[in-house]
Amino acid sequence: MRKTYSILAIGVILAIALAACGTAAPAPDSAPEPVVETVVVEVTSSAPVVVAPTGYGVTLAAVQERGTLICGVNSQVPGFGYVDADGNYAGIDVDYCRALAAAIFGDETKVEFRPVTAAERFTALQSGEIDILSRNTTWSLVRDTELAGNFVHTTFYDGQGMMVPADSGLAALEDLAGGTICVQTGTTTELNLADVMASLGVSYTPAVFEDADATFAAYSEGRCDAVTTDKSGLVARRAILSDPSAHTILDVTMSKEPLGPMVRHGDDQWFDIAQWTVFTLFAGEEFDVTSGNVDDVRASATAPEVRRLLGLEGDLGLKLGLTNDFAYNILKLVGNYEEIYNRNLGPDTPTYIPRGLNSLYTDGGLLYAPPFR
Amino acid sequence: MQPGESQKTTTPFWRDERILKGIGQIAFVLLVLVVASLIFRNMQAGLARQGITLSYGFFDGVSGFDLAESIFPYDRNSTYREAFLAGLFNTLSVAIVGIIFSTLLGVILGVSRLSTNFIINRLASFYLELIRNLSLLVFLIFWYLGVFLKLPRVREAVVWPGDIIWTNRGVGIPWGIPTASYPTFQLILIVGLILAVIVFLALRAYSKRTGRAPLALLWSTLTFTVVAAIGWLILPEKPLTLDLPFVKGLNLSGGKILSPEFMALTSGLVLYTAAFIGEVVRAGIQSVSKGQVEASRALGLNGFQTLRLIVFPQALRVIIPPLTSQYLNLVKNSSLAIAVGYPDVFYVSNTIQNQTGRAVEMISLVMVTYLSLSLVTSALMNWYNQRIKLVER
To answer: Which residue, of A249, A272, A302, is where some domain finishes?
Structure first.
């Protein structure tokens, strides 16, 4: 009898071992798996036959059925995406998500914020865990192609900078030779740093951390001689260091960092909605339509483009798959670009950043909305 | 059970226990295979839908990022493959250093816990109870942010003891630099090692023949040390010159610089794992029945001899299997390096995954890596366990 049991035991062990061998590769892939299921459900609910991987209109249908927009955001960069003292998300990336929710539902609160780290954000987007990524993400070719994403129009033009303690006497990147530089992993920042230092022929040691909090904690403990990230991030982070005046941001710009929202490949309708939400914010500022005066403007507007923008003429909203008053809802509930900017990065905030390139083209900036027609 | 003639004729196959069990096993294997292939196919379909193909071709591309630590030259022009290997070697160095020191500390703790000296006993118990009930992640972050980053800045560096420099940029220790005569010295060391093994085997044979038990390990170690010392003295040029660490500008230079990340990770892992090993050692020693000790005392063996010849060989049989688990835990726990910014294999893979978007490839590679590391560790320990276990005849 004992022998039979031991044979059975060996059989079970063998089966488990076989299963382990067989699934050695697929086991880790269980992560993207639920996604697949969600997508299938979404597709069957909108179209009976699945042709495109993530077809036209799939995302909007899923969001509308769910009743909330799931937006991947940062929770650690004041001014862009962070959790304020009351536990609410705030920042321009966060307000963009609210604008998108306003466009879809006519209700800016129907958005669920999901904090994602720099390293996990693209997987979260690819796998469908989030509908849109609005997390100070730099637009680059590899991300546009290999990461299967599409960048919506840039919402903030940034550049990489370097912050050092004010009493260190460091004034240029060359002064950092032999020094240690704190940087966050998985960012274009990390690659730019390596590129710039290699081209200057300056040797340095990187101290690389998983998230912004850890990076700046190590910097403020004196682990590094300098810390590098986008200038906007430096300004925002300096504001919450124990003594902001003890740190200076060097007058060097190491890269171009166009930051904007990102959507998945394969759903052009969703891309268009995300894109024209950005343009609505720009157009609102251009035509002086604010959350305060939008009702008056709608009652008395005569300029054809403003009337089309606010849904009084034409059917622009319907063409996007939304209601015709989507732009009105955005401007009424969230405000135009200027309002969002001043709320988060304006002169009255601790994270003040001069508008610079992030002004309308009429003011010498780069913000320019195509015609609403 | 004897499968006799009569049984064969009387029991129909659907009531034959052996056949039913066999069918059960086959069904189970099939079930597992079906589930596995379903999962795999589901993944493939999902990836195809996202327009992602699986391939390791990107591995030869230029990584473009720098690493803080690598045992071989690495810069932004190195490939992803080299980045991964650098991470793997970093993991290995933490694992090896960690296993050696946690074993030493663990044995000391285990023996101390059984000590009759009240203070030693209480101190060891206090340590074990404190550390075993902490979360390792919290413990590591404490060591990093609370200890090694709180060391003085480079300008106020502490130099103690001897030439060891303590700063929040790292710990500098004196290190030897090989000179021209180093290859000759290496040869002498090899000769010493061979002699040590011969002495060890000879003493073991002598012990078997006579029943006496000389301190084989001690004598062979002594042999090696003597040969090494003679080699060091007779060579005209010293094989190693001492390289002292010193403060240079913003950072430390010279000697061997151990980064705060490495120090935090290894000291955290060692102190944590040692607590568990201490308990394993104590349990092993206590598993040897008191009668054995009393009998050896009655035979006239002193305390040390009793421990070495009677208690430890028997305790070892109980200690080795759970000790293996602790070693495996240490190797796997080293992936918490990411919390303190030490570039181990998991950390580097995360970076690669993030820069290339190859999540499936990198995660599966990391899983295979840790699986291999664990299997090798456990194979070595099982081999040792086979050697020391009670020979049943």
So the answer is: A249
- Cβ–Cβ < 8 Å for A226, A175: no
Q: Which domain holds residue A167?
A: 160-249
Does position A216 have pLDDT exceeding 80, yes or no? yes
- The distance of B358 to chain A (nearest Cα, Å) reads 8
Considering the domain B80-146+258-388 in this protein, what is its CATH number? 1.10.3720.10
Q: How far is A189 from chain B (nearest CA, A)?
A: 10
**Closest C-alpha to B107, from B291, B294, B386, B312:** B312
A214 touching chain B per CB within 8 A = yes
pLDDT in tens, A178-213: 889 999 987 888 899 999 999 999 989 899 888 888
Out of B46, B52, B367, whose CB is closest to A148? B52
> Do A131 and A261 fall into the same domain?
yes
**Which amino acid is residue A177, in one-letter code?**
A
Domain end position, chosen among A218, A249, A280: A249
What's the pTM?
0.74
CA-to-CA dists, residue B125 to B38, B112, B119, B330, angstroms = 51, 9, 10, 21
What is the distance between the alpha carbons of residues A236 and A225, in angstroms, rounded to a whole number? 19
Q: Is A199 in the same domain as A90?
A: no
ipTM associated with this complex: 0.76
The pLDDT-based confidence of B267 (bands split at 50, 70, 90) is: very high
Query: Using 50, 70 and 90 to split pLDDT, how confident is the model at B2?
Result: low
Whether residues A121 and A228 fall in one domain: no
Domain shared by A139 and A38, yes or no: yes
Contacts of B28 in chain A (CB under 8 A): 11-12, 15
Summarised one tens digit per residue, pLDDT across range A2-30 is 444 555 455 445 444 444 443 333 333 33
| Token duo for residue B114 | 């059984």
Q: Which residues of A touch B354 (CB under 8 A)?
A: 118-119, 122, 185-186
A225 inside 8 A of chain B by CB: yes
Q: Are the beta carbons of B364 and A28 separated by less than 8 Å?
A: yes
The answer on A233 and A319 residing in a single domain is: no
Q: With contacts defined as CB-CB under 8 Å, which chain B residues touch A195?
A: 64, 76
Q: Which residues in chain A touch residue B369, judged by CB atoms under 8 angstroms apart? A: none
Interface size, chain A vs chain B, as Cβ–Cβ contacts under 8 Å:
196
Across the interface, whether the CB atoms of A39 and B351 are under 8 A apart is answered no
Distance between CA atoms of residues B158 and B164, nearest Å? 8
Distance CA B1, CA B18 (A): 11
Hey, is the C-beta of A312 within 8 angstroms of any chain B C-beta?
no
Name the residue facing A205 among B50, B68, B368 (closest C-beta). Answer: B68
Contacts of B336 (CB under 8 A, 6+ apart): B136, B137, B140, B265
A96 shares its domain with A69? yes
Query: Residue range B69-95: average pLDDT?
Result: 92
Looking at the structure, tell me whether residues A241 and A269 fall in a common domain: no
pLDDT band at B24 (very low <50, low <70, confident <90, very high): very high
Provide the shortest C-alpha distance from residue B69 to chain A (in Å). 8
Asked whether residue A43 carries a pLDDT value surpassing 50, the answer given is: no
Q: How many structural domains comprise chain A?
A: 2
**B156: exposed, middle or buried (Cβ count in 10 Å: 0-12, 13-18, 19+):** exposed
pLDDT value of residue A33: 37
Residue with tokens 């320990």: B381
Contacts of A178 in chain B (CB under 8 A): 248-251
Closest-CA distance, B215 to chain A, in angstroms, reads 43
Q: Which A residues 170-199 touch B at CB under 8 Å?
A: 176-180, 185-186, 190-191, 193-195, 197-198
- Is residue A27 one of the residues assigned to a domain? no
pLDDT tens profile B104-158: 999 999 989 988 899 999 999 999 999 999 999 999 999 999 999 999 888 888 8
